[in-house]
Each structure stands twice: as structure tokens, then as C-alpha cells.
Amino acid sequence: MDFGFILSSAAGEIFSPTTAAYALAALGLAVHFGYSGLLNFGQAGFMAVGAYGFAISTLTFGVPFFVGLLIAIAASAVFALLLGIPTLRLRADYLAIVTIAAAEIVRYIVTTNQLTAVTGSANGLAAFEGSFYAMNPFPEGSYFGMNNRDFFIRVVGWALVALCCTLVWLLMRSPWGRVLKGIREDENAVRSLGKNVYAYKMQALVIGGVLGALAGMVFTLPRGAVQPANYGTELTFFLYTCLLLGGLGTVLGPVIGAMIFWVVLSLTQGILYGLIESGAVMWLNTVQAGQLRYILVGVALMLLMIFRPQGVFGNKKELAFA
Amino acid sequence: MRSTPQGQRAGRRLGLLRLLGAIGASIFAILLVAGPASQAASPSPTPSPSNQTFQNNISGFLRDDTRAPLADVTVTAKKGDFTGTAKSSANGAWNIGVPEQGTYTVELDESTLPEGIKLADGQENPRDVTFSQTSNLSVIFAFGKGIVVQQQDFGQNLLNRLVAGLSFGLLLALASVGLSLIFGTTGLTNFAHGEMVTLGAVLVFGFNAMGLPFWLALILSLVGGGLFGYAQDRGLWRPLRRRGTGLVPMMIVSIGLALAVRYVIQFYFGGATQQLPYAQSPEVQIGPVSISPNNLWSLGISAVVIALIGIVLLKTRLGKATRAVADNPALAAASGIDVDAVIRLVWITGGMLASLGGILWAYYRPGVTFDMGSAILLLIFAGVTLGGLGTVFGALIGSIIVGIFVELTTVFGLAADLKYVGALFIMIVVLLFRPQGILGRRERVG
Asked: In chain B, whose CA is at the least distance from the CA of A112?
């Protein structure tokens, strides 16, 4: 078993674009759930709206990159509004069911054969990333062992993560953020102070949703393809695992959580595959090893929630639930 | 709320750890039983090896106008550069495994038909067919004078879909009544309920593949479902309730459980679609409705079981106690009801109902997969929410509405692969105007 290779590929996950995408989406969930107490189970839907919004506007309407970006952000804001109007007045568990249903509706709509011309149905869309890589300022060559494309997407992805973290941090220490935390702690108390709770929740939903849409774009650009199967409910559950790993009411928690999540997944995969190849483990095949990792994710989510709900960095006093 | 004395807390934490261990052990015990089963299963029912490697199937029965089976007829399915071929067996059945869902061109090779038999007028050949969410797609070729004319009749179609929808709705109701009972008595929104549904079907397949008779496999699967419900309550939810864990953390714990159980099932069962015995049955004509005997059985069984649950809830002391706990656990405990015993019973019943629902769902689709339960989890939620969270009869009515709605939307022109969207959309719309659901009590839920 080649430990050097296993460790280096696990270390490579720390700064992979997928980790950046998970960090961004989990940051959006931190705004929703960690700071506002909104139980959004539809973050995968927001990511799908962002990814498809960008891909469709680029491929079908041929708009330049930044217009596509704006369209993706606007589409996710509209999705948040549509979702928020019926549900933000409801109890947490209703909100959870409605958001998960809305995310599935998005997935069914981009999967249907009726819209194949626009969405590419189950096969998805591809070849929309050209305008992005055309902006690559790095000449060809090797950057830390990566080619210039891989390096560019990493730089952009993590710059975006840093920017969004700063924005969220500034927002949450502003008066606006304090009202939001007040809503999380006691909605009625905030309402009695004359604040429009509904409007604050809606703004939080839109901000977190836009972060999700950006995450969707960072997720699809390095792949060069967007496929509906990637945006199932499990994606949202993985994001919750990242968020809970790092800490709910924190800015850096989701980022660190996403890094831990991917490093652990990569490490377990490397070690399991190594054990299988070397013949030390006979009762597993490589497909089952992949499933074993997700069993571990599920168990980890349960144990985290039971024994350390505040995560690695969280503060127990800042939990969205008693 | 969390001001329990330190010592007591530590003791509880220890107890919780022990019980978590116990639930883990029991899950793996169940799996140990199921594991060899699935391994034993894979070689035995293999009509044509190439078909087993794919998750999706296009299948059908070939029968002439006197309903006699047509054997050795070649059918091909094409999509892009994929081509699959099958020959019909002695009972007329054919089955082509295909790599992915989508639109396929299916062609029946008319030169391989027996002499004197030809396709009925108006039967398109080749024709394009499209998958609709399920992993199995039935294609019907009619022969001789055929029964083609009836197929196109709108009223006929409407009636058939209505009955199929009722059958689907009732099997959804089996699962959602359990979910609703659990929500009513413990307040838990259980995301792992879909896996309880899957478990029922997987256990029947496993026990049957081990060589047990079909009826015994059914009974053992129901017992297994009940045990799983019991183990969950005993090992996980009761300790968490004792600890005073909030409802939202419990909901997230149930998501973790759902992920873990789903992949444990896939670990042993694999990713392929398997069929339960007697899964393929030709439709029969009863009065004006044509329905498959499996659907008819499903309709009857779920109606009887739900009626029984209703009678127990309304007429017996036990049912009264359950409703009392659902209404107000503290008050119920004060009036001498053993709340923990009631909740335990609710979990066992919920597990058995979910198992039964899973078995019927495996016949309705048809097929057993590791994610068949999570595929309808949202429809179960939709049924429960439509009727009103925590109301048992609301869950029944909500599920029937969802089932019929899902089937009827295809009659009124919605594409088949969008049929679940309608049901989810109607749930959101109902919440907009009547957040408490159809039968829910009028109270603020915001």
C-alpha cells in the first residue's frame, strides 16, 4: 500500500474545487440554519439552479460569462423568494419538508425528457465553461503540479470562498446580523421589538441561496458538465454533515468542515482500496468500499448531532436549537 | 431544559452509548442474515446474464388475441449506440436490460412471429417508448384484431388510472399512517422511514432467495420490519428522548440514520433491480377496469390493513391510549398511561406497516432496489402534510389524494417523468392556503 500516494491525494482534496463548492454551499446553510434557524433542506436545489442557470444562459442564449453569472444569481434569488413566500411563516419541520420537495421539483424538471433541448435531460449539459477558461490569466505551465486550468479554477474558487466568508462575517456582526440571531433565539421577542421577522428571514434565505448558486457554479465549472443526478437530496445531507462538522453558527466552520469531510472521504477510500488490493481485506470489493464510506458519513452525522452538535469550532450557546 | 444533575447526565450518556452499540449490533445482525441471502440470490434467477447487469428494464408479455403466449419472438431496444435484444420465453415474457432511463426505440421482429399471427392494426412497430421514474417499462404489443381501440379511449384510461392511483395511494398510506403515528406520539419527523419501506421489500427478496417459501418470506419480512422499528426506538430514539434532545436535532439524526441504512442495504443488496416472485402479471379485465392482479391484491390488502388500524385506534383501549399520547404525552402519563409502552408499540406497528408498504411498492413499480423507499419518501411526506401532520386519518386521505393525483396527471397530458412533480407542487400550494392540512386542527403552526 502506497501511503505517500494516499496521503498526497487526501491533501490534494483540501484545496480541490469540489471542496470549495461544498464550503460555499455549507456557508449558505450556515446563514440559513446556523444564524437564522431556517431548516433549509433544499440547498441542492439552489446549487442546481445556479449551475443550470449559468449553463443554460451560456449554451441556449450565448451570453458572456458575467451575464451568465448574474442570471444564475438572479435565478437563485427568485427561487428563494418563491420558496420563502409560502413557507417562512411555517414551523421548522414544515419548512424542511417544503424545501426538500422544492429541490426535488427542480431536479425532476431538469431531468424530464420534455425539456431535452434546453436541459439535456438525464445526460445534462456540457461544454459551457469555455468563456470561463478564456479569462485564465495564467500562461500554460505547471503550478504546484497542476496545469493552468486546474490552478485557475482553484484560485477563483477559494478567492470566492474567502470573499463570501468575509461578507458573511461582516454581515453577522452588523446590526442586521444581530437581529437575525435574535430571530433564531426567540422569534416572538424580536417581533415584539417591532422588527419585521418575515422580511429578515426572507433576506437570509436569499443570501444563503445565492451562496448555494455560486457553489453550484464552482462545482460544475471544473467538471465541464452539469448532470441532474449530482443534485439529489443526498448532496444536501452531505452539506449538513460538513456544516455540523465545522460548527453551526460560525463563518470558518463550514469551510473547515468541508475540508475535513473530503479529506476523510479520500483517506478512507485510499486505505480501503489499498487494503483490498494488497489482499488484506477479502470480504469487500471496491464498489462496496465506496458504499462503506457513505455508511460512515451517515453514522458520523448521527454521532455528531448527538454528542457534539456544536461541531469543532462552534459555541454551544450559539445553537439554533435548544 | 438541560439542567439535569451532572452524575445523572453522565450515567445517561453511558446508557446512550451502550444502546447505540446495541442498535448497531442489531442492524448488523439483520444484515448478517440478509447478506448471504443476496449473495446466494445473484446466481440463481438469471434468465439471460446480460440483462442482470443493468438497473433498468424494458419488458412485456406477448400474447395473441386468444391470450395464448407467443414464444421465441425477437424484440430489440435501441438508443444511440446501445442495442439490446431479447427472445420471448415459453410464457410469452420478454425482458431487455438497458443501461439508463430515457427514450428507446423498441422493435418487434415480425419475421420471428409464429405463422398466422400478426400485429394488430394500428400497432406501431417500431415505436418510441420513454421511462417514467420507475426502473421498469412495460411495452404491450397487441396481435390479431387486437384490443387496440379500447386503449386509446379517454374515459377508459381515466378509470384505469383512477383505480391504479387508488392502489398506489393506499400503499403510500400504509407507510404514511406509520409515519404520522410516530410524529403524533413523539414529534419526530422521521427521514429514515423510506429505508424502513425498502427494508420490507429487500427482506422478502432475501428470504425468498434463501429458499424459504414465499408466504414465510412475507411473514418474516413483516416481523423484520417490526423488529427494526423496535430496535430503532429502543436503541436510539428513546435514549434521545430521555436526554431531552430537541426535535430538530432528532430530525437530523434521522437523516444520518437514513443515509447509513440506505448504504448498508446497498452494501449487501447491490445496485441492481431485482424482481420478487410473481412480479410480472398480465392485466385482467374486471367490469370496465383493466388492472393487474398484483395491483388488485395490493388494493385489497392495504384497504383491509388500514381499516384494521382505524378500528384499533377508534374502538380499543390501546387505540384510545395512543390517541391520548398523541394529544398530550404529559397528561396521558399523569392519567396512568404507560407512554413509553405506547410509543414502543407505535414504532413496531410503524415498522411493520412500512415493510408491508415496501412489499406492495415493489410489486407496483415493479422491482426491488436499494433506494426504492427514499424514492417515495417525499410522496409519503406529501401525503402526511396534506392531511395534517400527526393526524392518522389525515395521512390516509392525503396519501390517497397524492396517489390518485400522481396517476391522473399523466392522463391530463403531463409527461410521465414529471408525475411526482404535480404531487409535490400540490403539497406546497395546500400549505400556502391551509397550513394545518386537510384534517389538521386550526392552530398557528408558524
From this structure: B417
Give residue-wise pLDDT tens across range A17-55. Answer: 999 999 999 999 999 999 998 999 999 999 999 999 999
The helix or strand, by DSSP H or E, that contains position B77, with its residue range, turns out to be strand B74-79
Pair A100, B441: CB distance under 8 Å: no
| HSE-up (13 A, CA, CB side) for residue B293 | 5
d(CA A245, CA B102): 38
A82 touches B at CB < 8 Å: no
Angle ∠(A170,A173,A179) on CA atoms, nearest 5: 125
CA gyration radius, chain A? 20
pTM as predicted? 0.80
Residues A250, A257: Cα–Cα separation, whole Å: 11
- The Cα B13–Cα B32 span in angstroms is 28
pLDDT digits (tens, 9 = 90+) for A263-320: 999 998 888 888 888 887 777 888 888 889 899 999 999 999 898 888 877 777 766 5
DSSP lists the bridge partners of residue B77 as B84, B106
Contact of B404 with B412, CB cutoff 8 Å = no
Question: Would you tell me which residues 177-236 of chain B have a C-beta closer than 8 angstroms to some C-beta of chain A?
Answer: 189, 236
CB contact under 8 A, A113 and B417: yes
Percentage with pLDDT > 90 across chain B: 41
d(CA B420, CA A43): 20
Q: Return the ∠ at Cα A86 (arms to A85 and A89), rounded to 5°.
A: 90
SS3 B136: strand
CB–CB of A240 and B255 under 8 A? yes
Query: What are the pLDDT digits (tens) for A94-153?
Result: 888 889 999 999 999 999 888 888 888 888 898 888 889 888 888 888 888 888 888 999
**Chain B stretch 402-441, residues whose beta carbon is closer than 8 A to a beta carbon of chain A:** 415, 417-418, 420-421, 424-425, 427-429, 431-432, 435
Residues 6+ apart with CB under 8 A from B12: B4, B239, B242, B243
Within 10 A of B280 (CB to CB), how many other CB atoms are there? 17
Compute the distance between CA of residue A227 and CA of residue A82 in angstroms, rounded to an integer: 23
Three cell numbers written together for B101: 432511463
Angle at which helix A197-220 crosses helix A17-29, to 10 degrees, equals 170
Q: By C-alpha distance, which of B235, B249, B230 is closest to B21?
A: B235
Q: Which residue has the cell 392502489?
A: B167
Identity (one letter) of the amino acid at B329?
P
Question: Which cell goes with A190?
Answer: 424580536
Looking at B335-438, list the stretches that DSSP marks H as alpha helix, in order from N- to C-terminal side: 339-364, 372-387, 392-411, 419-433
Distance in angstroms (rounded) separating the CA atoms of residues B376 and B171: 11
To the nearest whole Å, the CA of A138 is away from the closest chain B CA by 39
Answer yes or no: are the C-beta atoms of B82 and B37 closer than 8 Å: no
Whole-number Å distance between alpha carbons of B181 and B193: 12
Angle, vertex CA A221, rays to CA A220 and CA A226, nearest 5 = 35
Instruction: With beta carbons under 8 A apart, name residues in chain A contacting B259.
Output: 234, 237, 294-295, 297-298, 301
Integer-rounded Cα radius of gyration of chain B? 24
Chain B partners within 8 Å of A96 (Cβ):
189, 251
- Using CB atoms and an 8 Å cut-off, which of residues 254-313 of chain A contact chain B? 287-288, 291-292, 294-295, 297-306, 309
Say which of B1, B389, B418 has its CB closest to residue A108. B418
Whose cell is 438497458? That residue is B98
Q: Which three cell numbers stand for residue A114?
A: 420534455
The Cβ of residue B444 has, within 10 Å, a number of other Cβ atoms equal to 8
CB-nearest partner of B267 from A91, A101, A295: A295
Q: How far is CA A124 from the centre of its chain?
A: 19
